[in-house]
Amino acid sequence: MHDFFSRAAALPGRVVLTMADTGRQYAAGELASQAERMAQWLAAQGLQAGDTFAVLLENRVEIVELALAANRAGVYVAVIGTHLTPSEVAYIVQDCGARLAVASSKTLPLLEGARRELGLPCWMVDEAAPQAPSLQVAVRALDGAGVDLGGRPVGRDLLYSSGTTGRPKGVKKPMLPSQYRHLADPEAVATARHVGLDDGTVYLSPAPLYHAAPLRYTLRVLDRGGQAVIMGRFDAGQALALIERYRVTHSQWVPTMFSRLLQLPAEVRQRHDLSSHRVAIHAAAPCPAPLKLAMLDWWGDILLEYYAGSEGCGTTMIDSLQWRQRPGSVGRAISGRIHIVDDDGQELAPGQIGQVYFSGGGQFSYLNDEEKTRRAIDGRGWATYGDIGYVDEDGYLFLSDRRADLILSGGVNLYPQEIENALSRHPLVSDVAVVGVPDADFGEQPIAVVVLQRGVAATPETALTIAAQAGQALGKFKRPRRMVFIDSLPRLETGKLLRRALKERYRADPEAGFSLRETAKHNDNG
């Protein structure tokens, strides 16, 4: 199976990428030539095979160009989320050993700490800054004086997901050897085949490209000879208009996006011709059955759900007809083989709940964390995302919980301990726990359960004070929406938190405590 560069050489004039906000379209030859020049530039900066560079950009064509350049140069590209704080960005840059970083005028402030403290060289994709020269000028300055990259392996992404300790962890997958240079990644080919990607595909990507699925699926579409339409940011009405305008055949969503789409007025939802739309992929978070049924009633049986992760150790998939027969399932394995095991590592029979493992899937490790890697991969080589579930007699997987403590909000993974660590730094806090509660729009939202120091008043103003300090260390999407004050947290004598007891209590009463957003609005208006 040929890769994007081979296809671009054969059909250089074919439109393969559209930036939806501007309508700017890119032909295959143009995109491939720019990626090749960027690959040469990376090598000219001294990056050797297996080195890493960082990209911190809003949704722009340069993310795709630089990902393709990493492929050519045999290096890793760490695409970092723009929602993070400067301290979080600095940690990732240092942890992955980035040799340089690429930013824009919008994102450069997030790299300021890393640039200053680590001496990180930075380049700008738009206007040059005193501390960051222009990438385009630097690439043009090479003037064809490049190096032979033919013997290098095929580079790839190095993406970060939050760890259970609260620190993000890089998921490092091995590179393919140089003989695969003009062939598509076999793992990607298998997924593309199940999704039905081909040279007639027009793929709508409404999500940030710093997430694994939007970036990897965009590259898979290019490898298959299709066209990707990339939104700058998600807007429900615009997404429908784009499906009609570009005759989109495939798209990818998270449940929160479905919720926003269904909230559009009926006349807006019915205004657009969606007849070209054949496959609507969704993942990242469990989709509530009523929400999915509402989408099926509107779009028809075109929803295709999968379960996977950045680690790529296994994948399941389920189409709409299968899901109607088994509501709640995330499907059967299309990559790897599913095993449900108990706490002793013994494989369980169908219907029994245990930890979900895969054998025969893709290889990975957690960068700079051998212990986490060992916990994820057992002695048999079976690997897990850390989720709990069971399979039925026909091999369909049902997830009972996703990483017992994990909060899935709007398709983004939130880890309670990271939020707890930020809240606990406030001197008014004696003890704290964070759990996820149901939310109609985001699926789940974090609620903070706080024990105050003796004598501190449990008031809305106290809640705002604590939340404001924590917000300096947390990205906006990680901040709790509500705060509850109680006398003590349920803990064992060993000090272990009985988090499940809190989940049961506040999932049954998700409106408990103070709404931090409403309290802030009231104070502003007052």
Structure description:
Helix content is 32%, strand content 23%. It has 18 helices and 27 strands. A 13-stranded mixed sheet has the order 2-1-11-10-12-13-14-15-16-21-20-18-17, with helices on both faces. A 5-stranded parallel sheet has the order 6-5-3-4-7, with helices on one face. Strands 24-25-26-27 form a 4-stranded mixed sheet, sandwiched between helices. Strand 20 and strand 21 form a beta hairpin. The chain starts with a helix and ends with a helix.
Question: In summary, what is this structure?
Answer:
With 526 residues, this protein is of the alpha/beta class. It contains 18 helices and 27 strands.
- Number of H- or I-type helical stretches: 18
* Sequence of strands across the biggest β-sheet: 2-1-11-10-12-13-14-15-16-21-20-18-17
What is the number of strand segments? 27
What would you call the structural class? alpha/beta
Q: What gross morphology would you assign?
A: globular
Low-confidence stretches: none
Share of residues in helices: 25-40%
